[in-house]
Design goal:
Layout lengths: L2 H14 L4 H5 L8 H23 L9 H27 L4 H7 L13 E2 L3 E5 L2 E10 L3 E9 L10 E3 L3 E5 L7 E7 L9 E10 L7 E6 L2 E5 L4 E6 L3 E6 L7 E11 L2 E10 L3 E7 L2 H7 L11 E6 L4 E2 L4 E9 L2 E8 L8 E6 L2 E4 L4
Length: 362
């Protein structure tokens, strides 16, 4: 970017005399390198200083309009920082193709997940086995973690492989008291090598974002059909931990609606809709009684039986990877992880058992 062009752009911003950041965005013609961004900032700051010096030399009471101009230049500097930082962040983070394939992330819907992923870049190597955390995708109560595993030559990894004794823990304020999770090797199309991909899927009854997650793996096993059981390939223990820090793109609806279950009244307090899951927070004294002495019945106590979109589309549990629930005292939390991304602004209502919970307009 030529020095003359930079001055011309700054002059253009001044002439418009607007504080709108749209003017600042014009500074980002093409892609800015760190050197270009620094040069623009230095030139803008130099112009601000010059305008202020000229203003200070004028007799008292005389205004030329330049006081407003240096403020506009200041806005341009801020705009460079905002837009350049956004551009750099977008360029650095890309969804791993394996997570994209699993939850069908594409160019049309990827904006729904803005900021909701991170690359932990942590790994552990022991007994010839290396486990690396590649990428996470999450909201307040749900997370996917992609792992790459490499084992010694001569050992093959595939869908019949697994680690024994998987344990996931969180540390931080208000740790989850109820969780459900699974971690399986994905079919990567090659079961005859020593490399594999695992995906951890987890739902929790409390906010897990910005907490430290610890994942412990036990012995590496594979299923042996001839023995009808799992056989140890590599004994050992592997542990990874890192700080979760991503953007929760959920919309929260405080509904405070009664729900009748088994003749008892409970309160649906809040419904959180994220692009990857639906989370429902319910409270009532009945849950304490249910937890102590569950009644004799089959099926789920409460189920998300439908998600209705504003265009009339109805999603059911068949459109979800899975669902779970947890009880802690008088609180009950439901989670349902979706197979395809949800546009949170297009959800009209959810149905719990047979009761519709209207969200639009809340």
């Amino acid at each position: 970017m030529m020095k003359k062009q930079i001055h011309e752009m700054l002059d253009s911003i001044q002439e418009r005399e607007t504080m709108n950041l749209m003017d600042g965005s014009e500074l980002l013609v093409g892609e800015l390198t760190p050197e270009e961004k620094e040069r623009i900032l230095k030139l803008a700051l130099s112009r601000i200083k010059k305008e202020r010096e000229e203003q200070n030399q004028l007799p008292l009471g005389i205004k030329t309009g330049k006081n407003k101009r240096w403020k506009i230049l200041a806005a341009a500097v801020a705009a460079v920082l905002v837009f350049a930082s956004t551009a750099v962040a977008a360029e650095v983070f890309q969804w791993d193709h394996r997570i994209s394939a699993y939850i069908e992330i594409n160019q049309d819907n990827s904006a729904l997940l803005e900021g909701s992923g991170m690359n932990p870049n942590v790994q552990i190597e022991q007994n010839g086995v290396t486990i690396k955390a590649i990428q996470t995708l999450g909201d307040a109560n749900n997370i996917y973690v992609l792992f790459e595993v490499t084992v010694p030559e001569g050992i093959t990894l595939g869908p019949n492989s697994r680690f024994d004794g998987l344990i996931v823990e969180f540390s931080g304020k208000e740790e989850p008291t109820g969780m459900g999770y699974s971690c399986d090797f994905l079919d990567d199309g090659s079961d005859e090598d020593n490399k594999g991909t695992m995906l951890l899927s987890l739902h929790a009854n409390k906010d897990i974002n910005r907490k430290v997650i610890k994942v412990r793996f036990g012995d590496l096993l594979h299923y042996e059909p001839a023995q009808g059981d799992y056989v140890i390939d590599v004994p050992g223990n592997w542990e990874l931990k890192w700080q979760l820090n991503y953007q929760d793109n959920s919309l929260q609806y405080h509904v405070n609606q009664d729900l009748i279950i088994h003749g008892e009244t409970v309160k649906v307090n809040r419904v959180d809709i994220s692009p990857i899951a639906v989370n429902v927070h319910i409270s009532g004294n009945y849950f304490k009684k249910f937890d102590l002495i569950p009644p004799d019945f089959k099926g789920d106590l409460i189920r998300i039986s439908a998600i209705t979109l504003k265009d009339g589309t109805v999603l059911t549990p068949e459109d979800a990877f899975g669902w779970g629930s947890s009880i802690h005292g008088n609180k009950y939390v439901l989670n349902m992880q979706m197979k395809k991304l949800l546009d949170v602004k297009k959800v009209q209502s959810i149905t719990l058992n047979e009761t519709q919970i209207l969200l639009a307009g809340k």
